[in-house]
Write a structure and sequence with these properties.
Blueprint lengths: L30 E12 L2 H8 L8 H14 L1 H4 L10 E10 L2 E12 L4 H19 L7 E11 L6 E2 L4
Antiparallel strand pairs: 1-3, 1-4, 2-3, 4-5
Helix pairs in contact: 2-4
Enzyme class: lyase
Function: Catalyzes the conversion of (8S)-3',8-cyclo-7,8-dihydroguanosine 5'-triphosphate to cyclic pyranopterin monophosphate (cPMP).
InterPro entries: MoaC, MoaC_bact/euk, MoCo_biosynth_MoaA/MoaC, Mopterin_CF_biosynth-C_dom
Length: about 170
């Protein structure tokens, strides 16, 4: 029986012994990288109307969710094992009512570096959605978070990725 370690793959967080490790990006070129992710939150129409009218008892739900998403993007490496700590150059989180019962959250993260920002954008969108949920759960128990997904990423060796139906 051969017990030789498998060669490490640059596409995995497993080393040549099969152990999890942080991928070494030392030899990767610094390029401008950007990732855009989205999440949707569905709620009762009256809940969204309350938010839009500025009458929510917890205050400006969109503003608090936006700040939570930005803060989460900056701390992704503390939340997701093996993510690199990154010096993000820009983070935006937009929340927009897109139907009488839905909010679309778009998170965009940018940097110039050796590794991508997909996890940061996904983390920003998910934490913004969770914050919106947390702030509204007392007035609407039927809240639902949907569609956490990567819409687009650019930069690095793999180039551009664009979700086809986005």
């Amino acid at each position: 029986m051969n017990h030789a370690p498998a060669p490490a793959s640059p596409l995995t967080h497993l080393d040549n012994r099969g152990h999890a490790h942080m991928v070494d990006v030392t030899d990767k070129a610094d390029t401008r990288r950007e990732a855009v992710a989205e999440a949707w939150v569905r709620m009762k129409p009256e809940t969204l109307a309350l938010i839009n009218a500025g009458g929510h008892p917890k205050g400006d739900v969109f503003a608090v969710s936006r700040i939570a998403g930005i803060m989460a993007a900056k701390r992704t490496h503390e939340l997701i094992p093996l993510c690199h700590p990154l010096l993000l150059t820009a983070v935006t989180v937009e929340l927009k009512a897109v139907a009488p019962d839905s909010v679309r959250i778009i998170a965009t993260c940018t940097l110039k570096g050796a590794t991508g920002v997909e996890m940061e954008a996904l983390t920003a969108a998910s934490v913004a959605a969770l914050t919106l949920y947390d702030m509204c759960k007392a007035v609407d128990r039927s809240l639902q978070i949907d569609w956490l997904r990567l819409l687009r990423k650019s930069g690095g060796r793999s180039g551009l990725y664009q979700l086809e139906d986005a």
